[in-house]
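Ops channel
N.P.: pipeline sanity check, posting one input/output pair.
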């Protein structure tokens, strides 16, 4: 589908907030993964709430979560790009979906491309992508991709495969519009190493009840030369690099 020149496979982390098995959200996210995989080389880590959902509740601190979920959070923080999907519950993402992202380190997703997806029972809640999901990932200063994908129950067969041609077209469009942005995805496969320290600190200290003071915000791994960029903007000297 594309001539995108990506030497190393992109490190894609997909998250499905669907709690059921089978799950329409999971099927939708898988279809997006498949489409992207046809266009460019990718490695995929797929986090399914149908598997980890019940492990999430009750934890206030990240170190209270099972190791498996801590590893999933670290994978999200190390991703070159995310594909995130949630079922619509009461006009929003599910509570557990938000709870999971409350544990993600606040600065780890700066500039990370995020493809937004949701499945709902009704077309009337399609704007959940714009009114709920996009602001959440804007908070992280992630780069939410221009086209999101919304599906309804009607788009799936009883076996939860996608039978709607329009939905397939939308998935193709979302991936096609994502490709130019993924081309300059901050890390092109090199981000994982840079982010490790952030994830380790988060595993030790991060609680959903703790606000990060601005001074504590670590420099972005995605934009390591932010200081230099700022210096150009404000005609300031770059801050001395502290090893
Ligand atoms: C508790 C609950 C609340 C729901 N609220 C909404 C809603 O507000 N709007 C909507 O369009 N669908 C709603 N639905 C329907 C689901 O979003 C829809 O069936 C979705 O595709 C389920 O995804 P899954 O198969 O991955 O679990 C709700 C379903 C449940 C179980």
């Amino acid at each position: 589908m594309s001539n995108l020149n990506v030497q190393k496979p992109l490190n894609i982390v997909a998250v499905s907030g669907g709690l059921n098995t089978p799950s329409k959200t999971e099927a939708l996210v898988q279809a997006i993964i498949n489409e992207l995989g046809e266009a460019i080389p990718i490695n995929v880590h797929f986090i399914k709430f149908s598997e980890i959902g019940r492990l999430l509740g009750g934890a206030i601190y990240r170190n209270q979560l099972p190791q498996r979920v801590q590893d999933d959070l670290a994978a999200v923080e190390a991703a070159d790009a995310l594909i995130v999907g949630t079922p619509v519950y009461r006009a929003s993402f599910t509570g557990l979906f938000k709870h999971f992202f409350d544990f993600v380190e606040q600065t780890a997703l700066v500039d990370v491309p995020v493809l937004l997806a949701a499945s709902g029972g009704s077309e009337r809640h399609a704007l959940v992508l714009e009114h709920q999901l996009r602001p959440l990932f804007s908070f992280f200063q992630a780069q939410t991709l221009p086209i999101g994908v919304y599906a309804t129950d009607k788009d799936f067969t009883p076996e939860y495969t996608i039978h709607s041609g329009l939905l397939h077209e939308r998935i193709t469009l979302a991936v096609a519009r994502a490709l130019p942005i993924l081309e300059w995805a901050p890390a092109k496969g090199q981000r994982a190493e840079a982010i490790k320290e952030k994830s380790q600190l988060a595993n030790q200290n991060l609680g959903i009840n703790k606000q990060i003071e601005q001074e504590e915000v670590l420099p972005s791994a995605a934009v390591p030369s932010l200081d230099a960029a700022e210096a150009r903007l404000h005609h300031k000297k770059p801050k001395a690099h502290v090893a």
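N.P.: looks fine end to end. Confidence is low (pLDDT under 50) at residues 1-6.
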